[in-house]
Structures are given as C-alpha cells and as structure tokens.
Write a structure and sequence with these properties.
alpha/beta, 7-stranded mixed β-sheet, 19 strands, 6-stranded mixed β-sheet, single chain
C-alpha cells in the first residue's frame, strides 16, 4: 500500500531525492547526542550534523567499493555508518547488509543506532519493518535485511552480503577469518567498509595492512583526526587527557595517542612498548622535518642542504629492485653532525640507481659511501666501480659494499637506535621518520618493519651512520685511476 502522503508533490519529491542520494537522506536523520558535561543527564535527540569530514566519507560511499578508515574516537562515524546501513536496507530491493563488530554488545549497539534513526524518520519515509531484534532488521516489502554479528571464528561464513561493515576492525579477534569469509560475497560488485581506531598493542594486523596498502590494493582510505570535530580544540584535548582514570592500563599519553591521534603517522606508529626507536624522540624529529629545497629525476632525488666547501659527508644505501615491494634508498648526511642533506628514494632500474648515487655522492664532496651488497646491491656496487667511484666506497674484505649479516645487522641497528635516542642524527625526511615509527620488535625481539611497512629507509640510515665510524678521507674518486683507502 502506498503512503497517501507520497501523493503530495512536495513530499514525493523529497522522498525520491532521499532515496537516490545518501547525503540528501542525511537531512532527515536524527541521532542521540551523549551528555556534554558530567552535570548534564540523559541523551539528547538532535539532527545529524553534516560535519565536513562526515560528508567526505558519505561521498566515498557513492564512489568506492572497498574502503578503510582509521580514526579517532567519537568523530561521528558510527552514526554515519548506521545511517548508511539503514539507507541501503530501506531503499535497495534485496539488499543484504552484514555488520561485524567486536562483540555481541557492540554488534547490538550498532544495529540499534540504525533502528533509532528509522524510528525518528518522518513517517512518510519509514518502511514497514518485519523481523527486528538485536541481530536483525528486516524490510519484507522489498526483501532487504541487516544482520549484525560479533566477530567470532565463523562469523560471516554462510552469509551473502551486498554491503559488509567491519566496525572497530583492528580489535576483531578473528578479523582475518571473517574477511576471508565475506570478501568473496561482495567481489561481484558489493561494498566492504572497514572502520577502526588503531590498536597499538597489535601492530601487525589485516586492518593496518589494508590501510597502508591503499590505494594500490584497490581500497580507498581516509584518516579522521580528533580535530575533525568542529567542537574540539586543545583545551578539550587537555581536559580529556586529565580525566583519564588511573585504572586504565596505559599512560595518559599512550591512551590519547591511541584513542585520539592527531595524524595518520601518530595513529599507525607503534606503542612505546613495541617500537624499536624512542617514540617521543621520533615525534620531535617528525615536527622538525621540512620539505626539500630541490627535487630531481621526478622526485627520486631530494636535496635539503647544498654541499659546503671542505665539509665531509657520508652516505648509506639499501638497494632493491622491482616495480612493487621494497624501495631503493640512499641517505647522505654531514659526517660530523649527522644532519641529513640529501636522499635518493624510489624504484629506479639498478643502472640508473648506481648512476644517481655516484652523481649525488660526487656532488657532496665525494661522500664516503656504503652500499649494501646483499642481493641486488651487488650489481649497483659493481656499476659504481665501473663509474670510477671505488676510492670512497666501503669494502667488506675485498668486496665493494657493506654486507649485512646476522652479526652486523643488530650492531648497526643498535647504533642507530642510540643515535636517534641521543639526537645524534637529524633527519629531514618525513617518510624516513615515519618508517622508523613503524619499525618494531617482533614477538621474538627481532627488529623489523611492521607488517605492511618497509625498512629501506631504516637500513639506509643505519648503514650511513656506520659509515661515520668507517669513513677514511684521502684521494677522492675520479675518472682515472683510484687509490683504495679502505680494504676492510
């Protein structure tokens, strides 16, 4: 039976606009606002506030199939998701929406938000509800339903869905199994949305892997800071931090970093417990990073400081090859101060990498350089020798280049860790500091890049720092004969 009010032209137009456009539908959504102060009791029913960051996400829903969102707490995303779930189920015939949450309570709470929104829509926009409980909301007139489940081992395995929501995904015990179960059901054209604050206690997770891999893995990603809400400022942040009870099993600083990160780097960096490098120092270094004064070769080469006459420079490089995966990296710094002056970072062919390294090292007063000669680095080292740069290349016995082994690796990384903690190096590259933030100790205590991250910057910095000890200064490289000054 057609609602008689829909025969009114103005109402019919509004209904049709809301049916076709989720952002337009949000104009009719009402939500529950929690008390703003401890002296305020009860929740208030208010219109959905179209904050800019929420409307950006709402636009994503129309433009992408696979989405992953890292966020701070209480930025309005749960209500937005609840509204989107209802909109899909209410207006798309045959829709099957699957919500997977951390536990039974969380699953019921998320579905309850959709029910609340539906109850508070104008009567002429509401649909006839069939089955409705803590796990299901159905619209029998057009055979659509929402199913809300906790993230158990078998959750989603027998479900077919056109839209899958994984809320607080980084805290799901069985996220990997659930993802493997539901992903095939939406591959034919459905949507999958993962949303979460970041779990600092679990740096290796599917959620982080998907987020860090976007957009190359087909996902659209977005980070939402605590500052995204217009009603938050530094005074709010300070009050929130001061109100954290002592029963919380982490420091106030770590709690705020996890629950209310201000940027993507802070959100994805490991906790102080897991991080290999001193987190506080890295954050200070990140704040001091600046844009390069010059870039070359399409951004492959970055310059921060011009070479100075009579200044000695050292360089370290980690070489990789391929269009995907690891990068090649070279760091050049002032020999005495550890201040970064230039870098190479990218995926150039090996011969181009060698030429770029030689050219840049020569520019910096024939910098003393160590290039890792494991794997692809052997070819780069040989090319550098062919280009006449052997005179100021580190040698492992009679082999040009630095050899990373089970003995040298922990030593070089340990020395770099001490140098970072003591501020003995000064990086300017935000990407390099960001990579240090994602460098962790695994369950066996071995330092390595967290899953989904790389270690090329870290290894290049470690080799460069080792060169400060091994560097010898004498006759520079040239186009003719060279004198070998280092035969280690």
């Amino acid at each position: 039976m057609i609602d008689p009010t829909l025969t009114m032209p103005s109402v019919a137009i509004e209904y049709e606009l809301a049916r076709r456009s989720f952002p337009e539908f949000l104009s009719y959504v009402k939500i529950l606002e929690p008390p703003q102060t401890t002296s305020t009791t009860g929740e208030s029913v208010i219109p959905f506030e179209k904050w800019p960051h929420l409307m950006d996400v709402a636009a994503d829903f129309s433009n992408h199939r696979l989405m992953v969102y890292a966020k701070a707490r209480q930025v309005g995303l749960s209500w937005l998701l609840a509204a989107y779930v209802l909109w899909v189920a209410r207006f798309q015939p045959g829709a099957r929406v699957l919500e997977l949450s951390r536990g039974e309570k969380e699953a019921a709470d998320l579905l309850a938000k959709s029910v609340f929104i539906h109850t508070n829509l104008p009567e002429w926009m509401q649909g006839r509800i069939g089955r409705s409980n803590t796990q299901e909301l159905g619209f029998p007139d057009h055979n659509a339903k929402v199913t809300a489940l906790p993230s158990t081992r078998d959750a989603g395995r027998s479900e077919t869905a056109s839209l899958v929501i994984q809320d607080e995904a980084d805290y799901h015990e069985y996220l990997d199994l659930n993802y493997a179960a539901v992903k095939p059901t939406i591959d034919a054209g459905g949507q999958l949305i993962q949303v979460s604050t970041v779990n600092k206690r679990k740096m290796l997770s599917l959620f982080k892997e998907l987020y860090k891999g976007a957009p190359g893995n087909g996902y659209s990603k977005r980070f939402i800071s605590w500052t995204a809400r217009p009603d938050r400022d530094m005074e709010w942040y300070a009050k929130t931090k001061a109100s954290i009870p002592s029963t919380i099993d982490m420091s106030p600083d770590l709690y705020m970093e996890q629950e209310y990160p201000s940027n993507e780097m802070e959100a994805l960096s490991p906790s102080k417990v897991l991080g290999f490098f001193a987190g506080d120092t890295l954050r200070e270094m990140l704040a001091e990073c600046v844009d390069p004064i010059e870039t070359r070769m399409g951004g492959l080469v970055k310059i921060w400081k011009r070479p100075k006459v009579a200044t000695k420079y050292v360089a370290g490089g980690d070489i990789a090859w391929g269009e995907k995966g690891a990068y090649s990296a070279l760091i050049i710094s002032d020999w005495q101060t550890g201040e970064q002056v230039a870098e190479i970072h990218g995926r150039p062919p090996l011969d181009e990498a060698a030429s770029a390294i030689v050219d840049l090292c020569r520019e910096y007063n024939d910098a003393y350089v160590g290039i890792e000669n494991n794997s692809e680095g052997v070819n780069v080292c040989q090319k550098m020798v062919d280009l006449g740069y052997l005179g100021r290349m580190y040698r492992t016995k009679d082999k040009p280049g630095w050899t990373t082994t089970s003995i040298t690796r922990p030593v070089m990384l340990g020395e770099l860790e001490e140098a970072v903690r003591a501020r003995g190096v000064k990086p300017y590259s935000r990407e390099a500091v960001g990579e240090m933030m994602s460098f962790v100790r695994n369950e066996k205590g071995r330092p390595e890049a967290s899953k989904g991250s790389h270690d090329d910057y870290v290894m290049a910095w470690a080799i460069m720092y080792a060169m400060r000890t091994h560097a010898t200064w004498g006759i520079a490289s040239g186009g003719g004969a060279v004198i070998l000054l280092n035969r280690r």
